[in-house]
C-alpha cells in the first residue's frame, strides 16, 4: 500500500506538462487525416472516454490502481486537448462569418477540458482521503461511521458535479449544432441571393444589348424611309421630264 506521500505525488502531476512527448501516445498522423466532421466526432468520443476514466478514478480505493488510472486519465486528456487544438487550427482558415459562429463551439470544447481537469483534482483529493481512511481502519481495526458517511457524501456530490458538467456539455453541443445549422442556412441564402444577382445582371446586359439593336434598327428604318421619299420624288421628276420632253417634240413637229 502506498503512503500519503505517494498520493501527494499523484495530485501534483500536471496534465499540461510538456516533458512528455505527445507523439508517443497520440496518433498524430491519423488525427491529421480526419475530416472536420470526423474530428468533431472523435472529440465527442474522447470526452466520453475521459469522463469514463474519471468515474473509475472516483470509485477507486486502491493506491496502486489509483495511480495507474490517473496516468490513463492524463494520457486521455492530452489526446483530448490535441484534438481540440487541431480543430481550432483548422477553424483559423475559415471565413470571418463562420469564425464568429464557431466561437461558441470552441468555448464549449475548452469548457469540457477544464471541467474534466477540475473534476480530476476533486477525485484526487477525495481518493487520497479515502485511501488514508482505509489505511487508518486497517491500522486501528476500527471504523468511523460518521467520517465514512461524510466521504460518501462528498463522493456523491462530486459525481453529481460530473453529471451536471456532462449535461452542460451536451447543452452546449446542441447550441453549437443549432448555430452551425443557422450559419449553413445563411450561407445557402447568401449563395442564392448571389446567383439571383448574377442572373439579374445578365438580364440587364441582355436588355442593354437589345436596346442597342433596337436603336440601330430604328436608325436603319428612318434611313430607308428617307430613301423611299427621295426615290418617289426622283420618279415623279423623271415622269415630268419624260412628258415634258414628249410634249416638246410634238410641239416642234406640229408647228414647224
Rg over CA atoms, rounded to whole Å, is: 45 Å
Our estimate of the beta-strand percent is: under 5%
- Number-wise, the strands total 0
State the separation between the terminal residues, measured CA to CA: 162 Å
The ordered H/E elements are HHHHHH
In percent, how helical is the residue content?
over 70%
Shape: rod-shaped
- Mean residue pLDDT: 77
Q: For this entry, what is the oligomeric state of its chains?
A: single chain
Q: Please summarize the sheet with the most strands.
A: none
SS content category? mainly alpha
Low-confidence segments: 1-25
Tell me the number of helical segments per DSSP (H or I, 4 or more residues long). 6
Structure in a nutshell:
With 256 residues, the chain is an all-alpha fold. Helices cover 87% and strands 0% of the residues.
Amino acid at each position: 500500500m502506498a503512503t500519503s506521500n505517494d498520493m501527494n505525488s499523484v495530485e501534483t502531476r500536471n496534465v499540461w506538462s510538456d516533458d512528455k512527448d505527445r507523439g508517443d501516445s497520440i496518433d498524430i498522423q491519423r488525427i491529421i487525416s480526419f475530416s472536420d466532421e470526423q474530428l468533431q466526432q472523435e472529440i465527442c468520443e474522447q470526452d466520453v472516454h475521459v469522463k469514463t476514466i474519471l468515474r473509475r478514478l472516483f470509485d477507486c480505493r486502491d493506491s496502486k490502481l489509483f495511480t495507474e488510472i490517473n496516468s490513463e486519465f492524463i494520457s486521455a486528456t492530452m489526446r483530448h486537448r490535441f484534438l481540440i487544438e487541431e480543430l481550432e487550427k483548422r477553424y483559423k482558415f475559415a471565413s470571418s462569418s463562420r469564425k464568429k459562429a464557431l466561437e461558441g463551439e470552441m468555448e464549449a470544447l475548452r469548457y469540457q477540458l477544464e471541467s474534466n481537469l477540475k473534476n480530476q483534482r476533486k477525485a484526487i483529493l477525495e481518493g487520497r482521503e479515502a485511501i488514508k481512511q482505509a489505511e487508518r481502519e486497517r491500522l486501528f481495526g476500527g471504523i468511523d461511521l460518521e467520517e465514512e458517511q461524510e466521504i460518501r457524501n462528498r463522493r456523491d456530490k462530486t459525481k453529481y458535479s460530473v453529471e451536471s458538467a456532462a449535461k452542460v456539455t451536451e447543452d452546449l453541443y446542441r447550441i453549437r449544432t443549432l448555430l452551425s445549422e443557422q450559419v449553413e442556412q445563411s450561407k445557402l441564402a447568401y449563395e442564392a441571393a448571389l446567383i439571383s444577382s448574377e442572373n439579374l445582371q445578365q438580364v440587364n446586359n441582355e436588355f442593354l444589348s437589345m436596346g442597342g439593336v433596337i436603336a440601330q434598327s430604328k436608325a436603319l428604318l428612318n434611313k430607308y424611309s428617307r430613301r423611299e421619299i427621295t426615290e418617289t420624288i426622283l420618279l415623279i421628276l423623271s415622269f415630268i421630264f419624260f412628258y415634258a420632253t414628249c410634249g416638246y417634240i410634238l410641239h416642234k413637229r406640229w408647228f414647224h
